[in-house]
Design goal:
Blueprint (H helix, E strand, L loop, with lengths): L2 H9 L2 H7 L26 H6 L12 H14 L3 E5 L2 H12 L5 E5 L4 H13 L3 E5 L15 E7 L11 H10 L3 E5 L4 H4 L9 E4 L14 E5 L4 H11 L5 H33 L4 E5 L9 H7 L6 E6 L4 H9 L4 E3 L8 E6 L16 E5 L5 H17 L1
Parallel strand pairs: 2-3, 2-4, 4-5, 5-6, 10-11
Antiparallel strand pairs: 1-7, 6-7, 8-9, 9-12, 11-12
Helix pairs in contact: 2-10, 4-10, 5-6, 5-9, 12-13
Length: 394
């Protein structure tokens, strides 16, 4: 691709960019989508080529034209210098943290982080000799007071994937960079389409592509993107693990990419409609949705994000476990599941209290996380209204 065409792509709006990024039809005889290259062994034409590794592909774990197409597309969308694929979002989290830490290092992790992130940090990362400390996600630039000479990584997750705190990422990044630390963002809730992580000061950005990128609840894949400063180190760590995603998964993710902007906007619209409706229900105490003016982080969200995804949480008024189960179990259109970002709506009861360490989770009632899919909003509201009637009756 010529430099002029690359520059043109960077100027495209998100809905257009996702249809164009990572595509080179005339490298593949004009076919619109890149083919699936399955393989481990790559042949070299000569000994000199082997010794110099002078060809784009050298072995299956280093990538294929299929996986490279998705990596290149993600770089364009995220504004990154490089990106790598992993078999899951959790694998991407582990890869990013291992890229930015070493034995004896100190890592600061947002207290609102995805629970499997905490499990990785408290288990494998500590076993590798990294000192892990959790911080209040609302600390902003005050995180400077927690920095040590040995701090090498600060992980942000904004908003928190259950409790929905919006972090002041630019302020945190500025404080971290002043101490030489790498800023890692779990950007799965927003994707780069709604929050450009590298523009906001993040060095490494994680995406559980399982969710909005895949979009159909049938794929596990993760991505880590890097700015120019961290690109070589990320690629070296990735190559050392040989943990790349398979070409079939990369191909499905590329297919999901083409409609991601459209799905995100529709799910944003539907989720905000339902969140506003729930906010007025007598059974609901609070709705935790960053796009609502009532959310404590609303002004930060308006400043740093260009939209919202379909995931938000609700705090019910005081209700028994039996009543919550009656509400959730009887829903017809909401599945009960851990993931989100697919075409189908989901609900998940949750309680952060047992694993928060830097902050306290003390809601006034039971908490539910919703992921709004692509169903008709009227049908979803009817399902929820019937569920809330069961809650009240119980």
């Amino acid at each position: 691709m010529s430099e002029d065409k690359k520059e043109t792509k960077h100027k495209l709006r998100p809905a257009t960019l996702v249809t164009q990024a990572g595509r080179a039809p005339f490298d593949h005889f004009g076919f619109v989508n890149p083919p699936i290259y399955r393989g481990s062994t790559v042949l070299f034409p000569t000994v000199a080529a082997l010794e110099g590794l002078r060809q784009p592909y050298t072995y299956g774990t280093k990538g294929t034209p299929t996986t490279r197409a998705l990596e290149q597309a993600w770089c364009e969308i995220a504004g990154a210098a490089d990106a790598v694929l992993t078999p899951s979002g959790l694998a991407a989290i582990g890869l990013a943290l291992l890229t930015a830490t070493h034995a004896g290092a100190h890592a600061l992790i947002a207290d609102c982080a995805y629970q499997p992130t905490r499990m990785f940090c408290d288990g494998l990362l500590k076993r590798f000799g990294v000192n892990v400390e959790y911080y209040d996600p609302l600390i902003g630039g005050g995180i400077a007071a927690l920095m040590r000479p040995e701090t090498t990584a600060v992980l942000v997750e904004s908003p928190g994937s259950q409790s929905m705190e919006v972090q002041d990422v630019p302020a945190i990044a500025a404080a971290a960079h002043a101490h030489g630390a790498c800023v890692i963002a779990d950007n799965t809730w927003a994707t780069p389409l709604l929050f450009p992580p590298h523009e906001r000061g993040c060095d490494l950005a994680i995406e559980a592509g399982t969710k909005y990128l895949a979009g159909h609840a049938d794929l596990l894949i993760g991505l880590v993107s890097a700015n120019a400063k961290w690109a070589k180190r990320l690629r070296a760590t990735f190559n050392a693990f040989g943990m790349g995603a398979g070409p079939d998964d990369a191909s499905l993710a590329l297919r999901g990419l083409r409609t991601m902007a459209l799905r995100l906007r529709e799910q944003e619209r539907a989720a905000l409609d339902i969140a506003q409706w729930l906010q007025d229900r007598p059974e609901v105490s609070r709705v935790l949705h960053p796009a609502l003016p009532s959310h404590p982080g609303h002004e930060l969200w308006k400043r740093d994000f260009s939209g919202a995804s379909g995931v938000f949480s609700v705090i019910l008024k005081d209700a028994s476990n039996k009543a919550v189960a009656a509400f959730v179990d009887g829903l017809d259109l909401f599945g009960i599941g851990f993931s989100w970002g697919g075409y189908e709506s989901l609900v998940l009861p949750f309680d952060c209290a047992s694993y928060r360490t830097a902050t306290r989770w003390t809601p006034e009632g039971p908490a539910l996380r919703f992921s709004i899919g692509l169903e008709d909003v009227g049908d979803l509201k009817s399902d929820l209204a019937a569920g809330l009637a069961r809650l009240k009756a119980s």
